[in-house]
Amino acid sequence: MSVRVPFVDLRAQYRAIQAEIHAAIGRVLEEAAFIKGKYVEAFEHAYARAYGVPHCIGVGNGTDALFIALRALGIGPGDEVLVPALTWISTAETVSLTGARPVFVDIEPDYYTLDPEHAAARITERTRAIIPVHLYGQPAAMDAILELAQRYGLAVIEDCAQAHFACYRGRLVGTFGSVGTFSFYPAKNLGAYGDAGALITADDAIATFARKFANHGSLTKHEHELEGINSRLDGLQAAILQVKLRYIHQWTARRAELARRYAELLADLDELVLPRIRPHCSHVFHLYVVRTPWRDELQRFLADRGIQTQIHYPRALPFVPAYQHFGHRPEDFPVAWRFQHELLSLPLYPELTEEQLQYVCQSIRDFFAHQCRQFLRP
User: Fold this and answer.
1) What is the pTM (predicted TM-score) of this model?
2) Residue 202 sits in the same domain as residue 75
């Protein structure tokens, strides 16, 4: 039996809500409300209300959200910002774009998020902020991170690009730090049909700066109070996101159920490390990431069976060419160095069927039962 299993199926999601999406797009087109306007405002208000914060500022993408947050907190040349060694490059490159220096921190071996103990060892007199990434949908260790931030006077920016509506001890991630930033890239749990992003905050001054900076330094046309950038959530994407926002909790519950099914069907494989959920937290499973020393062989085997997988991320940030000038060595980040060779993301999206999931799991079992024997010999 062969069953095609894509890594993600955005067409299936679109077909399920097609009529609502078309109606929303049609309203924007009829009113030509393409830049800013009532559809952007409506989504910002709805998203802020969903998070229980006074401010949501829609921007062009999640990378811009991080950059704007850093600028709003006054991060600039001479400063250092702590970022996890394993994440997408946006978390670090936005620090560099302010003129500050990203300082990499190793990850926790159980949850793959920033290790607070290693972070403490990386703090200097120049450290101004810390950016915990709620990676794969798993909340970072916010109690320890906030304690560290308070002890050393650090600002906290939460990178929630993969963790829409994840909770840490009953509280939504993105509401702990000064700012929470989000990506609405199409494949995210809450995704637009193009690039889009947002930041949320309870701080009036940060919100005002963010709105100005993202709109050429102006809240009123032609009144440029400072130099800014052009990063605005457009009306089409806002209207699409407003429709999808109504379904996000339903989709999140389905992701959790699929993760439970993966765990049930793969739990007895000693060669495979399954995702762990941090105690007292909700993992929203943007990605279902397993770990094995035979990652590359497993990925090729699954591909031959029509199963798409991805690697997030093939190189930890300290070892990508963009940061080679720092001269980092594997022993500086031993967990991230090892895991970059072992982590594999399996298909997981709300429309994944039971048949597809069982096919993926059986294929993984077949690999370890037969094909992997040559690698397991002493």
Assistant:
1) 0.96
2) yes
Q: Name the domain count of the chain.
A: 2
Look at residue 234 and tell me if it is in a domain. yes
- Would you list the DSSP string of 29-97? HHHT--BSSHHHHHHHHHHHHHHT-SEEEEES-HHHHHHHHHHHTT--TT-EEEEESSS-THHHHHHHH
The angle that helices 354-366 and 248-266 make with each other, rounded to 10 degrees, is: 30
Mean of per-residue pLDDT scores for the chain? 96
Which CATH number fits the domain that encloses residue 224? 3.40.640.10
The CATH number of residue 297's host domain is 3.90.1150.10
Ordered alpha helix ranges (H), 267-353: 295-304, 334-339
Contact 262, 348 (CB under 8 A): yes
Distance, CA of 108 to CA of 114 (rounded, Å): 6
Domain boundary among 189, 218, 245: 245
User: Residue written as tokens 């509280």?
Assistant: 171
- Other CB atoms within 10 Å distance of the CB of residue 260: 11
* Cα angle for residues 246, 24, 55 (degrees, 5° grid): 55
Same domain as 93, residue 18: yes
Whether the pLDDT of residue 161 is over 90: the answer is: yes
Reported in sequence order, the residue ranges of 184-265 that DSSP labels E, i.e. its strands, are: 197-201, 218-220, 223-224
CA distance 214 to 266: 46
Cβ atoms < 10 Å from Cβ of 65: 33
Domain residues for 315?
248-376
**Chain segment 75-122, per-residue pLDDT in tens:** 999 999 999 999 999 999 999 999 999 999 999 999 999 999 999 999
CB 319 within 8 A of CB 328: yes
Query: Do both 197 and 267 map to the same domain?
Result: no
Q: For residue range 247-266, what is the model confidence (pLDDT) as tens digits?
A: 999 999 999 999 999 999 99
C-beta of residue 91 within 8 angstroms of C-beta of residue 159: yes
Q: Is 252 helix (H, G, I), strand (E, B) or coil?
A: helix
